[in-house]
Amino acid sequence: xxxxxxxxxxxxxGAGTRSxxxxxxxxxxxxxxxxxxxxxxxxxxxxxxxxxxKGKTLSYSRFHYYMLNKPAGVVSATEDPRQKTVLDxxxxxxxxxxxxxxxxxxxxxxxxxITDDGVLAHQLLSPKKHVDKIYLLTADGxxxxxxxxxxxxxxxxxxxxxxxxxxxxxxxSGPISTLTLTIQEGRYHQVKRMMEAVGxxxxxxxxxxxxxxxxxxxxxxxxxxxxxxxxxxELIAGRA
Length: 240
Ligand code: URA
Known about the structure:
- This protein is of the alpha+beta class.
- It folds into 3 domains: about 5-55, RNA-binding S4 domain (Structural Genomics Hypothetical 15.5 Kd Protein In mrcA-pckA Intergenic Region, Chain A, Roll); about 65-125 and about 210-235, Pseudouridine synthase I, catalytic domain, N-terminal subdomain (Alpha-Beta Plaits), CATH 3.30.70.580; about 130-210, Alpha-Beta Plaits, CATH 3.30.70.
- It has 7 helices and 15 strands.
- Strands 7, 8, 9, 10, 11, 12, 13, 14 and 15 form a 9-stranded mixed β-sheet that branches. It has a 4-stranded antiparallel β-sheet with strand order 3-2-5-6, with no helix packed on it.
- The relative contact order is 0.15.
- The site of uracil (URA) has 8 residues, from helix 6.
């Protein structure tokens, strides 16, 4: 592994933004192989050097993992000539091979994992892995227990096969209903088509979770952060 700047290493290890970590280094909070290093330009070997910050040895990850609270109005693509993409929201962080894991519609909000780890992405998206995706939605019309039964048993959405069994829970039923829907597939516009099939079209849609990864509600729409080591470990452990 080639040498890299200490500030870059710390930023990539999730210790803060590039300018934040420069401050931390200048404040003498970082040591390299047991010696305090106050120079952000110092070159380190990510694999061989022991870099300690706040008492913890940081490890270098080959891949990068971010949780984005996708706002409405942004497309789930890596680039687009006319529209703002989820990677535009990541700004300078996006200078790598990052991509969103699956797609949310332009008007859908909520949890989107952005990574450059193709293996993890593939496993999270594989229909064989049955990864739960939980959506919170509002729908036009009063959702009934019979609608819930149909959503849970599987509905005809115009594809070759009906949807696989799902879980649905009414949070509020009225002229506009609120519910959660848990699905394991990821067909095109799936939630919207399922709700169309029961005659209660989606008015708003937000993804709350994907497998063990739960949207951090302290992230404002459009905000992102690296996954914590615990979140990443759980996601990796749960995918097998
Ligand atoms: N289902 C949809 O219809 N849209 C999304 O964005 C996600 C799931």
